[in-house]
Amino acid sequence: MLAPNHIGRGVIPQPSVLDDWIISQLNVLHAEPDCGTRGSNQDVYLGPVVQEFQQLIESDPEIFMYFHKMFDEVRRPADDVNQIKDYKDLMVILNQVITQAPRFGGVNNLVIGVPIYAVLAPFCNTPSGYNAFTNPKVNAHFQKFFDVWARFLVSPASRYALATGEKCWFSAEALDAMAQRLGASFYDTWVCRNDDPEKHYGFTSWDDFFTRRFRPGMRPVIEPGNPNLVTAACEATVHAIHPNVRALDT
Q1: What are the domain boundaries of the chain?
Q2: Rounded CA gap, 216 and 16, in Å?
Q3: Which of 3, 16, 92 is nearest to 53 (CA)?
Q4: Which single residue of 98, 120, 135, 163 could bond 149 by disulfide (Cβ 3.0 to 4.6 Å)?
Q5: What burial letters (b/e) apply to 2-13, b meaning 16+ CB within 10 Å?
Q6: What single string gives the DSSP state of each residue in 42-65?
Q7: What's the distance, CA 3 to chain centroid?
C-alpha cells in the first residue's frame, strides 16, 4: 500500500521553482556566463520545427501582433533580466525543452510540472497570450512540438535524467523522496528490469520510466466493479468539479 498524505504533490508549492527553472534555460543565451551578460538569441541554432514556428509567427500579422503584445502584458519588475523577453527568446527556450527530459525537482517538487507549461504560463494568462494560444494555427504547430518531444522522450538519449547525479531521478535524494512518498523503496514498488540504478534500473527511456508499472499488490483498486467510484489513473486527486464545462473554459 502507498503511504498516506501524498495528495496534491503534483502541485508546485513554490512558484520560485518555476522561475529558477526558466533562468536555467535562459543560460543558453548568456554569451559570457561569468560576467552575466545576455547573449543574442540570434546566435542559437533552432531545430526545424522551431524554425517553422518562428516563420509562422513572422508571416501571420495577427499572430505576430499577439506574440509581441503578450510580452508587454506580463506583469513583472522592470529590472527583471532573468525572464523571457520576446518571442525569439521563447523560440530558444522551446528549442531547449523538446530536447530535454524532465528532471527531479527536489524533495518538495518531485516534478517541475510540464516544462512547456513552465515556459508558457506567464503569457497564457494575458489577453494577447490567450488569443495567441487558442489560435488554430498555433495549436497545430504545438502538436508538432509535442511530436518531436515525444520522439526524444521514447529514445535512449532521454535516459540521461535516469542517472544517479544531482537532479537525476535515481540520485540518493530522489530515491529517498520517492521511498518516503510511497512507503517502500523504488525497486520494491515498481517493476524494474534490473536492480542497479547506475544502469537505469533497466528502463529504456524516460517515457519507459514515466509509465512504469506497480509491482503486484502495491496499488490495489478499491471496489473495481463499483461504477460510483472513480479511480485515479496517476498520483493525483480531484482539484474541482464543475458541470457543463466548455472546451475553451479556463
Answers
A1: 18-30+44-154, 159-242
A2: 38
A3: 92
A4: 98
A5: eeeeeeebeebe
A6: GGS---HHHHHHHHHHHH-HHHHH
A7: 25
Q: Residue 105: is it exposed, middle or buried by C-beta count within 10 angstroms (0-12/13-18/19+)?
A: buried
pLDDT tens digits in sequence order for the chain, 250 residues long? 334 333 334 444 455 556 666 666 666 555 443 333 334 445 567 899 999 999 999 999 999 999 999 998 987 665 565 578 899 989 988 998 898 898 887 765 544 556 777 788 888 889 999 999 999 999 999 999 999 999 999 999 999 999 999 889 999 999 998 898 888 999 999 999 999 999 999 999 999 999 999 999 888 888 989 988 877 777 666 777 788 888 877 6
Cα angle 203, 206, 212 (rounded to 5 degrees) comes to 55
Cα 57 to Cα 37: distance, rounded to the nearest angstrom: 27
Using DSSP's 3-state secondary structure scheme, residue 133 falls into helix
By the 8 A CB rule, do 94 and 53 touch? yes
Handedness of CA 88, 152, 119, 34 (dihedral sign): negative
Cβ proximity of 110 and 15 under 8 Å: no
The reported pTM is: 0.76
CA–CA dist 100, 134 (Å, integer):
25
- Helix, strand, coil percentages in the chain from 3-state DSSP, rounded to 5: 50, 5, 50
Contact at 8 Å (CB) between 66 and 72?
A: no
**Cα–Cα distance, 238 to 173 (Å, whole number):** 28
In contact, 29 and 39? CB cutoff 8 Å: yes
Task: Considering only CA atoms, give the Rg of the chain.
Answer: 20
